[in-house]
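Reviewers asked in the last cycle whether our approach scales beyond single polypeptides. To address this, we selected a multi-component target totalling 673 residues and predicted its structure end to end. The input consisted of the following lines:
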Amino acid sequence: MIIQDSDPSNIARLRWQCRRGMLELDVLLEAFLKQHYVALSPRLKRHFVQLLELPDPIIHAWCVQGQQPEDEAFAELIASIRATRVA
Amino acid sequence: MALEKQRFDTLILGAGGAGLNAALQLANADLKVAVVSKVFPTRSHTVAAQGGVNAALANVLPDNWHWHMFDTVKGSDYLGDQDAIEYMCREAIPTVYELEHNGVPFSRLSNGKIYQRAFGGQSQNFGGEQAVRTCAAADRTGHAILHTLYQQNIRAKTHFYDEYFAVDLIKDDEGVVLGALVLNIATGEPLLIESKTTLLATGGCGQVFRTTSNAHINTGDGMAMALRAGLPLMDMEFFQFHPTGIAGKGMLITEGVRGEGGYLINQDGDRFMEKYAPNAKDLASRDVVSRSIVTEVRDGHGCGPEADHVMLKVNHLSEDVIAKRLPGIRESARIFAGVDPVKEPIPVFPTAHYVMGGIPTDRFGRVMPTSEDNGAHLPGLYAAGECACASVHGANRLGGNSLLDILVFGRLAGHNIIDYVKDNGAHRPLNEAAVEQAMGRLQRWRTKGEGLTVSQLRNEFRKTMEDHAGVFRVEEMMAEGVEKVRQIREKLGDVRLTDHSSTFNTNRTEALELENMIDVGLSIAVSALHRKESRGAHSRPDYPKRNDAEWMKHTLYWNEGDKLDYKGVRVQPLTVERFPPQERVY
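The resulting structure, written as structure tokens, was:
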């Protein structure tokens, strides 16, 4: 699982799936993928893949507007994404 | 390996509101429909439209489509075609009801009717009291519509090609479009989709500017495909800018910040809007505030190490006021500008938001290939949404009319395609030479070796567009910009990919997007240079007045030789009296 997650083609797929309908998510998710994804635990990697499957307004509410995910499992990942430097 | 081919009655490029609403009409009529989208359909930029859809339902206050039409004509600064505007405002009503019946979860009034809110630029009784016309699904209207249309299309068995990039249209020797060559982003394999009719619904092109509120996907792909197919783009000089985007990033900071007492300052801490708009100051109209910001920066009063932005000061407001009245702003500023607005001002610069121009169509979505206003259209080719120009926004767009445009004209294009396919039931013979030409566009990027990177040339291009074809438009600077963009177009030949892999090769996709953006960027720069007046979103300090005698006409741009031509505004509505041009004051 870990080897598969680090596969460059998988990273490439995730990078394309960070292309969203909202600029805020494009910038934030792409920066997070580039800076932090490879070093994530297998559990957080799984959560990130699951997060990308969610609708944009939900990801926006959690990652940009600061709403707490109802599913606690996402909380740690969302906190990391919100701390990403996008400069 | 032989090129894979598929056949459909209709090919739709783009899966935003226009593409999906057209697809639904067609699939419900049992046509075989393919929708190609470079991202998963519900991640199209329509999802970012929060405000709502204008329709004169009169659920809150008295209203009718004729008042809506007046506001839209006036908002267009009299450059909109009045027949198309009448049509859109009338069709708004059945379009919204159809969406409701399809399951869009509109917010509701206490009497059960669709909730409507007030937006700027909307009036009752031809310029009277504020109207309440914008139908909304909380603050997620675009998402609600997109999600519903997608689900309905799945039910109706529309065939989706998700994560496929449209490379080029395929035409025969008579100029009839036969479909398109598309690229499977996941595998890198091309696919030829043959179709009896093709609808371009690829959205806007805000990414041509360095600072934009548009998502990364908005690279003008359909517009550029139209240009390469020998078709014109219309009124591309009309680009709506929002004055306060986060500097260097583009995310919108709502006007509500200035409404609550926030104000703009330059590097000396001067409240410069007092100089440009002594009465309205920071609440002056969008174009005035945008131009003032750019003027400050150009005059050397900008902030930051590059002196390339100004500051929006809100830290004189209490933390409580910011939390209560401006929720979200603090978080956005913290994440994207790295500042806490409670303590420090927010770096801002005008951000490119919406293009009024696009592929010229009549009110049925049929693409019009010439400057002759004789009803001539290209058989079987349609365009709808932000990539198209049915000329309902003219020189400036009203809030709530962008979702309306994509939904109405997507739906009507669908209806027209159904009729066309009834009369033209057979596929035309494939033009192998055109297929080869389109394949050449892919093969060009297989060249290896040293060269410029895609991101290097893209950065240079977007900065050039911002500096020379953005908010501040004077002759000399724009002429210089056109030359610079032409040189950038020449440099495309020197660009090499850094990644030649097949699977999800974003580098290759971004190269194809850059080609598209440069073609579209030139259409903006050239069209803007030659319009010597100020109208709507096109503002020329060297020609500060609207000039109806000479310029009440549409610009048409062809990329071969950067040719321009013009055609008159259609001022005669369908069933009512025309609205003669007046000074546009609010």
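The CA atoms of residues 64 and 579 of chain B lie 16 Å apart. We regard this as preliminary and will revisit it once experimental data from Aim 1 are available.
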